[in-house]
Design a protein that fits this description.
Helix 2 runs antiparallel to helix 3 and helix 3 packs antiparallel against helix 4. The mean pLDDT is 89. The protein is an all-alpha fold. It contains 5 helices and no strands.
Length: 159
């Protein structure tokens, strides 16, 4: 329990380890390749959830919405581990890295569990039927507008 308490009290302290540049013999090319790759992965891992959020906001009555949120959290946490790895070259925040990895593991397991649990329901969804329903609802709304216009026109002719 003492180690857990120490872990959290020193969570953002990095003076127990050297920066990654000082560990081993990094060439400038190898170090920057590692850093730029991790930052590119982090950037992609933050853009993908933004697209998922945009999609879920535009698509109403989306089934399995919690799965989308879990995927978003999973992807953001995965990206965060890459960002912290890039920062390790200057700031060796291994405790924060470990915490991010634990959170990533927990959300990954939760996402896996929900996908396994919901897989039969996901397979049973009939996208073509849903698309037909959407098109029929859209057509119905158009017909209702036309009927309303005709009623208005008939009422104006009676007067």
């Amino acid at each position: 329990m003492e180690q857990v308490e120490e872990f959290f009290t020193k969570l953002l302290l990095a003076d127990d380890w050297p920066a990654r540049w000082l560990c081993g013999e990094w060439t400038s090319f190898h170090g920057w390749l590692y850093i730029t790759s991790d930052i590119a992965i982090w950037l992609a891992y933050f853009v993908i959830p933004a697209i998922i959020i945009f999609f879920t906001q535009k698509r109403h009555n989306l089934p399995f919405l919690p799965v989308f949120w879990l995927f978003g959290a999973f992807i953001i946490l995965c990206g965060s581990t890459h960002l912290i790895d890039a920062l390790m070259f200057w700031w060796p925040g291994y405790r924060l890295s470990a915490l991010l990895r634990l959170l990533t593991a927990l959300v990954s397991l939760a996402t896996s569990f929900v996908l396994i649990r919901d897989l039969p329901k996901l397979i049973a969804v009939k996208p073509k039927d849903e698309l037909k329903t959407y098109q029929l609802e859209k057509q119905l709304i158009q017909y209702e507008k036309e009927i309303l216009e005709l009623k208005t026109l008939l009422n104006s002719k009676k007067e």
